[in-house]
Amino acid sequence: MLMYMIQLMQRVIFLIILFSIIFLYQCAPGGTNAEALSTVQLVDLRCEYRGNPLGIDVLKPRLSWNIESDESGQKQSSYQVLVASSEEKLAKNAGDLWNSGKIESDQSVHVVYEGNKLTSRMQCFWKVRVWDKDGNSSAWSKPARWSMGLLEPSDWTAQWIGRDIPGTNHHNDFQFSKWIWFPGGNPAEMTSPGTCYFLRPIVLSGGKKIKKAQYLITADNRFSLYVNGELAGKGDNAKERYKFDVSALLHTGKNTLAVAATNRGPEVNSAGLIGVLRIEFQQGDTLIVPMDRQWNTFSKKVPGWKDNGFDDSDWVPAQEIGDCGIEPWGDISMADVHTRLPAYMLRNDFIITKKVKRAVAYVCGLGFFELHLNGKKVGDHVMDPGLTNYSKRLLYVTFDITDRLISGTNVIGTILGNGRFFAPRTSMHEGMRSYGFPKLLLQMRIEYENGTTQEIVSDQSWKLTLDGPIRANNEYDGEEYDARMEQDGWDRQGFDDSEWQNARPVESPNGFLQAQMIEPMRVTQAIQPTGIANPKPGMYIIDMGQAFYGIVRLKVKGPEGTKVIMRSAYNIKADGTLKTEDNRGALCTDIYTLKGKDDEIWQPNFKGQGYRYVEVTGFPGVPTVGNFEGLVIHTDMDSVGNFICSSSLLNQLFNNVRWGQRMYRRSVPLDPDRDERQGWLGDPAKDAESDAYNFNVASFYAKWLQDIRLDQRLSGEIPDVSPSYYPYYNKTIVWPSVITIIPEWFYNFYGDKQILMDNYESMKKFVSFISEHHQNSDFTVDKNEYGDWCDASTMGSGEREPTGATSRPLISTSYYYNNVMITASIAQLLGKTEDDISIFFIIIRKQECKNFPVPCFNIVLNY
Known about the structure:
By secondary structure, the protein is of the alpha+beta class. Strands 31, 32, 36, 37, 38, 39, 42, 43, 44 and 45 form a ten-stranded mixed β-sheet that branches. Helix 4 (684-694) runs parallel beside helix 6 (738-750). The chain is globular.
């Protein structure tokens, strides 16, 4: 009996201890909670909109998560976040960086980190649990992480390295030509808007074969060039020289050169046309046909005016305005528009003798870069870093390279492309901004298991060469690759770099360094061609079956030195050949020179192009569709939406929209084709929300808004393009209104108040600028640069600029009113009531403007 009582007491004590342990565990910060476990699941953990981002520079990052449940109406009532300095600590529910405790809130987005101070290079591991509507706790989420970048300028000990190459080949292509126009006054100063027509017949004698014929031309404001009635090319900016190959349009005997030149604008302004035809014959001689008074002109369009044999006896000789170089156009003849520069290759080696715990590289290579380590490219990014105004901001990219390092000698290398840093054009559209020659800033930190660290930095010990296989790379014109110049093993141990030169210290681009916080560009899809045609001997047209932005991957086998030339464009002509006119001044041509060994597979590194068709010449043998692939490239934003219904037409329309959105998202909203490819401010104000229903564009647009803020002048003026590679500061209102429209939409869509705080001062400065410079006494605004651009009712109406039929003052005044309303409402939302009263309280009363009635706008602010 005594033994039984002892055993019974032992069991009771055991059960008391057991239940006590369970109770204490449930009540602990990392426990499962005394309540029943909720079926709610937590997924898609994000830090600053990104999943597990590396090298961020936000000191108080915001955390978000999604809640999933099979139960209808389920929701979060509370949450708890743990952030730890190691995976081991997080697994033990030890939030040594931050333990939020149980927070009664349904907030699951933009939860601000409120823990210990975050420092450079720090790793942060986190997880979250929530309580559902019934007060039941979920299980902990799967762990997520982020790491910090280099937060202070003093953290950077690396040097900018590279090699600056002074000198450019300059020549005067227009030395025999004059600026011309229809006679009357001084067109260089002012003449009436409208289109004038110009003709010049030439005769080519028999017995001479044309080797090459090129037409160099430009006009203020736009032109269409015809040869024997066929359209040879178009252009629309006097600051750019347009070059067209017209060899195939000329023939023996009489030929007719014709140009329709338009002076656009609502008022009198400058107008002019200049050009030269240069024909090289196989016999070695050259014929030059300049523009001068030998051209005849007429001010009205006449049927058949551009055709060969047209009778221009009623036309008058053109007026010679002056030589190339006169104002207002300046000297456009001395710049090499199509810039050429080989890719830079840089390398360095270092030795590891200890066990590596962690290794991270922070890289800014301008214009674009690829990082290589021990014989392989690091990561799958394309054309890093994102585009910025490099005199204001430079983005660096963080790579975790722990698994890439080996014991003994390691080799790190980079390839630098030109990108927008070494401008793809030197003279076009007001003079395209160039920032210098390619350069590299690289810093790598290795942490060893014994607690020591090692820094590998870019400096004069690195080796550099310009004698690699990428002989030219230009985003507009294409890439030239000579496989015979490949330097095998350049990024591996044992390579002999004795013929390489030492890298040189170069000046900083002056912009401040900032972590790249947007998704990188990647190859996201490989497209197989749908067909191949042979419109001419030796010429093949590859149809990708879909228009997209990207590159062509080539597979070829042939003799050493064979050159395969690939030109790309959206469309083909009626005769089946490539229609390159839509590319305007962009050559869109890739050239691959074979090394002559087995199958060779190649794709460009530092360019892209909007296209569907590819013209291939020089291919050894007869190609098949299997020799080509189309690689789709864009900023790799997460897909967040989809649409499907019973209508195949609607499904196809939706699919077309997604293709278009991907084409335009390349670290900046860029048009994908021809020779502009700029971050125009007008379009995204209308289609950002459409983007967001299909893709997670939050980081993308937050980055671009910062580009715009940095391009804003002290006066408050905002350019039409950002980053401002074209310095288009037109003191206008409609395009720059993106600075108010997108932040307001962004806040309403994502619930992110930070975007308003970041952009409010720029909004205020912009609205004040318009008020000061353009507001009329009746509160209307007349200034408008582009009107109702590409209005469908007026597009395609001859030579007319597609500015639409809508009254420009009506558009500007409406935008002004909208900007004021948005800024005033955001001022209230942010508690800026003093600003709200002093600057944005406006009463616009009913008035009559020049051409249209203005409705009565009353902005009533209630406090």
